[in-house]
Amino acid sequence: MKTQDLILLEPHEAQIRSLLTQGAGSERSAYMLFGIADIESDPWKEASRRRLISHQFDQIDDDSLVSASGRHVTWQTDGFMRLLNDAKIAGQVPALVHSHPKGNARFSEQDDRNEAELARTALLKGMPGLISIVIAGNGDIAARIWTQADTAIDIGRILHSGPRLRISGLEGTPEDFLDRQVRLFGKEASRQVSGFRCGIAGGGATGSALLPLLLRLGVAEAVQFDKDIVDETNLNRLHGTRRSDVDAKMPKTSIHARTVLESGLSMKLVTVDAWAGHPETWDALKACDVIFCCTDDHAGRLFLNRFARFYGIPVIDVGLAMQRRTDTAFDLFARVSTLVPGHPCLLCGDYVDPRRAREEALRRNDPDAYQRLKAEAYVLGEGDPSPAVVTFTTEAATMAVNEWLAAVTGLAGDAGMLPTRIRRFHARDERRPLVESRSGCPCCSQAETLGRADVQPFLEMVS
After folding, report:
1. 155, 150, 131: which is closest to 54 by C-alpha?
2. C-beta separation of 290 from 404 below 8 A
């Protein structure tokens, strides 16, 4: 049996919590659909597991209720049969949700009996299981899944994904070296920080600065993606590099693995020598709880922009723009955008160029075809290398990590992460541009893609 955990997207969790305010203290119920993310080999445990991502919420209306009180709720099952049909067509997992306004987030014996019958029906209809969720009056949520008609398995780990981030079901205590951090954030917030499985897309300047920050914050499991080798020009900004690494043509991922190993701290870092978005990276990306996008290319950004939508895994994108206008005038920008439900995507903010993304993908996947198009002036070409200064790339990485900390600890208030903030180093100020989701956006305006998870082709991308 695969290990299973849930990702509850903020819009759906808000709908679950709304059940507590209905019915004047009586129990209320709803149906849900969950997308399936199958991970053939978890990068840290090297075992298969399954993640279930909330995709759709449908409240059971009053007309379908048979009876309800503070201790029970019953309803007509016509809607349940429609739910099973929808789940079968979409290849998803059906779910039951109900509230315990006067009880605990614990399944009762009556729940066991009722759900066993419904689970038997679901399994006979070919479902991979039936999820059950209960929310208590104090706000606690419990979940389990029926994969057999006579046994339900508790799902202890739930990633709550939105502008605020939290993982239910974490255990353990913070490492001793985190004492000063615990004094500020407390044990639970530090346990949360350590418990996130973090992905870092890119091992260049920003990624090399971001990894040690996660290491020192106590993150226990991380994975980093990059396919480059270090060269002479990286020495001015790539943390952890040595001149001998240039001579040895060392992969950037090997340098970062060495940094973690030499620290002697508790992080288990897995490195993948591939660009984020390559099929070789899919399993590891699906296993993450948050992904920091530290790539400087449009192809990687466009991929992760869509990935965040389908899998509900938060992506924190870091961008830099630097140029000299005169000998004493500069434009120096760092941007951090957070891709979570309710926030506009990178396309809506014009932070990614689909044409450039296609050209970059072509250059990686078919260099000969790319060169032919370039010779015919059908592509933009690479242009001159972008300027880079270690202090600015490092500060951009810190901005991204602090945005994540705001989501986990609440250090900036209950609103959590901002959609986008831009720091102007030359003006010594920070701005929060108002970016709204565009009507018709191919990413964030399509309700059917939110939490859709595994589909064929992957992310519904046709090359």
Report:
1. 131
2. yes
Residues in the chain: 463
**Taking the mean position of all CA atoms in its chain, how far away is CA 346?**
15
Whether 376 has a pLDDT exceeding 60, the answer reads no
Coil vs helix vs strand at 392:
helix
* Nearest alpha-carbon partner for 160 in 313, 2, 51, 49: 313
Q: Which of 196, 237, 275, 258 is nearest to 395 (CA)?
A: 237
Cα distance between residue 194 and residue 201, in whole Å: 19
Query: What is the CB neighbour count within 10 angstroms for residue 415?
Result: 11
- Residue whose token pair is 């973090």: 198
What φ, ψ does residue 372 adopt, rounded to 5°? -65, -45
pLDDT of 281 > 70? The answer is: yes
Q: Which two tokens stand for residue 135?
A: 């929310």
List phi, psi (to 5°) of 75.
-150, 165
Q: What is the pLDDT of residue 380?
A: 45
What is the spatial distance between Cα 144 and Cα 202, in angstroms, rounded to a whole number? 36
Distance between CA atoms of residues 301 and 306, nearest Å:
9
Q: Which of 124-133, 149-158, 248-257, 360-369 has the lowest mean pLDDT?
A: 360-369
β partners of residue 323: 331
Question: Quick one: what percent of the chain has pLDDT higher than 70?
Answer: 95
Q: How far is CA 60 from CA 79, 108, 174, 385, in A?
A: 8, 20, 42, 57
∠ CA 404-160-4, rounded to 5°: 120
Q: Rounded to 5 degrees, what angle do the CA atoms 20, 26, 29 make?
A: 65
Reading the block at residue 297, the tokens are 């290319």
Condensed to tens digits (0 to 9), the pLDDT of residues 2-59 reads 789 999 999 999 999 999 988 767 888 999 999 999 999 999 999 999 999 999 999 8
Percent of residues in the chain assigned helix, strand, coil, to nearest 5: 35, 25, 35
Q: Which residue has the tokens 């059917």?
A: 448
Tokens 């000998």, residue located: 327
- Mean of pLDDT values over 151-176: 96
Question: In this structure, are residues 243 and 197 in contact, taking their beta carbons and an 8 Å threshold?
Answer: no
